[in-house]
Amino acid sequence: MAPTPPRIQFDRQFDAQTGQTVAVAEGIVRVIAPNPSPYTFTGTNSFIVGHQRLAVIDPGPEDEAHEAALTAAIGERQVTAILLTHTHRDHSALAKTLGRRLGAPLWFGGQHRLSRPLRRFEVNPIRRSCDWDLVPDRVLTDGALVELGDMALRVHTTPGHCANHLAFGVADGDVLFSGDHVMGWNSTLVSVPDGSMADYFASLDKVIALPYRRYLPAHGGEIADGVAHAAALKAHREMRNQQLIDAVSAGARTLGAVVQAIYPRQPAKVRMAARMTMMAHVEYLQAEGQLRATRGLFGMRLELA
Ligand SMILES: [Zn+2]
User: Fold this and answer.
1) pLDDT digits (tens, 9 = 90+) for 266-300
2) How far apart are CA 25 and CA 264, in angstroms?
3) For FRET with 158, which of 5, 187, 192, 229 sits at 20 to 30 Å CA-CA?
4) Burial of 128 (0-12, 13-18, 19+ CB in 10 A)
5) Cα 160 to the chain's mean position, in Å?
């Protein structure tokens, strides 16, 4: 039997220093945007990478003070590109304006797209959070290198949270910008069909096999041992798969009943996210042949396969 991974620990003790330019590693500074919420924790982390030639990762929301803080931190230095980990608006809304101001192109993993086509009558529950119209000047593919003079970033495709999600590794270094894929303060929202649980599992395996240990996520503080944390997140999701199977075995027939069984005492806002994530688990287990979900006019009926 494989050894049991340690129980997941979430770190919510984090001094955001919103709007301040904070040096977090050699050639890397962070400025946190003033958009805290239950989904963004203390706000979006925007990173500036490089010494003389820079990349900006995730400019964040459209906010004048945040834009001023970023341009002040950049100063007169040349920005090679604005990079996005993905096209959810809390990461991307400022990208166009900032790119125009700096004369910098916008590079990311392709225009926003769903992880699978919508079913008849289905609505993407997070459609308003997505930046559908943003078009990259260059589509970054897996393994691409973003050269920044004496530093470089390696592109790693990490779909799951959403289809065009990327992580960026400091080439020949220890740091991975893990975006929303691996975060220290909470597990990632996976909402179908924007995201995919099967892709998310595969992308966890992918980053675990990469040579980076120190993760800088797009929300919350850094993760000292990112590989161990990604492994714990994977175990946490596997536990949720098992809890879903157990709830259906015990007689839960609807998504609501499953969420009630697994998250009995959660506030409404968290329960909404739990419902979306549980739906992603249902689709995953259905594809794995472990669960049967019959979709009808009045919702979905669950049975063991
Ligand atoms: Zn985000």
Assistant:
1) 888 788 888 999 999 999 999 999 999 998 877 89
2) 41
3) 5
4) exposed
5) 8
